[in-house]
Amino acid sequence: MKKIKLLPRSFLIALLMGAAVFLLTRCVHKDDSGTGRQISFSQFAGSEACANCHKDIHEDFIHTPHHLTSAPASETSIKGSFAAGKNIYNYDLVRKVVMEKRDSGFYQVLYDHNTEKTARRFDVTIGSGTRGQTYLSWAKNSLFQLPVSYFTHTNDWANSPGYLPHKIDFNRPIIARCLECHSTYAKTISAQDHLPEAFDRHQMIYGVECEKCHGPGAKHVAFQTQHPGETKGGYILNPAAMSRQQNLELCGFCHGGRLHPSKPSFQFTAGDRLSDYFLPDTSRPDPANIDVHGNQYGLLIASKCFRISGTMTCVTCHDPHKNQRGQLALFSERCMSCHNKEHGNFCKMGAEIGAGIVQNCIDCHMPKKPSRLISVLLSGETNPTAATIRSHNISIYPEQTKKWLEERKTSGKSAMVN
Q1: What is the dihedral of CA 270, 273, 276, 281, to 10 degrees?
Q2: How would you label 232-260 residue by residue, b for 16+ Cβ within 10 Å and e otherwise?
Q3: pTM of the model as a whole
C-alpha cells in the first residue's frame, strides 16, 4: 500500500498564515457596496463638460425638474418673495418667521414679540418649484431644513412639510439619503450612523444631472477628448442599452418610495440592482395605499398597462432630457401608440367624447390626487393644504371621468355664450 507523505507542520502553518493574510487583504480593499467599486467626487466631470459634445440635449435638460431639484440658494433660485408684507409666515399672534435679505445672504429669522431670536441662512434650495421648494442651511458641515417652505399652488410661504403646526424647528437634520434623490453626489465625511451627518460642501454636485443616469463621466470625457472621432462612447453608461428591469430600478432609486439603505449612500449607479443597496421590501401594498408622492414606480407596476406589457418602462412616456410637464396631448399620443383602433383596445368613450379624446387621456386615467405626505399649513390656516400630484396607477376612474365630462360640457357652454 502506497503511503501518503505528510507535509511538514511548519509548511502547513505558513500556508494558513498566507491564506489569512490574503483574505484580510481582500477584506481591507473591498468596498462597502459589495460591487468592488467606490464612487468618489473625482470621478465626475460635471454637466458643463457634457455640454461640449451634447449641446442640444444639455440646453433642453437644464429646464427639467431633475436639473432644478437642488441648487445653491440665490435670488434667482429661491422662489418665494422677500418683498415687505409678502415675506412673513405667522405661527401665532406673537411668533413669526420673516424672510429677509441681508448683506451676507438670505435668511429665515424668528421673531418672538418682535424680538429676533434665531436667524438661519438659506444655503440650498430643494425642489424645482413646480409644486414648491424647501430650504437647507449649513451649520458647520451639517445641513438642516428650515421651518418655512414655499408652496407654488398659492404662491406663498408655508410651514415645511411634516413640521408640527406651532413648533418652529430649525434643527431637523438632512441625511445622505435625502441628498441622494436631490443631487448627483455629496461626499459624507462623518462616521457611519453618526447624526447629524456631515458633508464636504466642496464635494457636492447639485441637481440630478447627466451622470446620475449615465454614471460618473470623468473617464468618458478624457477618453473622448483623446479620441474625438470615436462614436461608440467609452467609459459611459447608456440606459437605452440596459434591460427593462435595470431601467425601472434606475428610476425607482428615487421614485420607488421610502427605500431603506443597506449600504453607504451615493454608491448606487445606473445598471445596479436596488437589492444590493437597499433592504428588500417583501410587502405587496394595495395601490390605493401608495401615496402619489415619491412612489410612482410602485403605482406604475401595479397598473394593468404595465402588467400586460413586456417592454413598458418610465421612459416609454417620459423623455428625461426634456421638460414636457403639462403637455397632455403629447402624453396622450404615447398612450395611443398602444391603445388604438388597430389594436382593438381604444377608449370605449371615444364616440361620446368626440375628436377631443386625442388631446387628453391623462386626466381620466392618471388623475391628480392629493398627497398624504406632502401637505403644508399656510399662514393663518388651521387645516393643511395637500399638494396634488398625478397618479401613476394607470386605471379607470369612473368618478374622475364623470367629473371631466361635466367640466368639458360646462366649458363648451361657456364658449358658446361668449
Answers
A1: 130
A2: eeeebbebeebeeebbbbbbbbbbbbebe
A3: 0.87
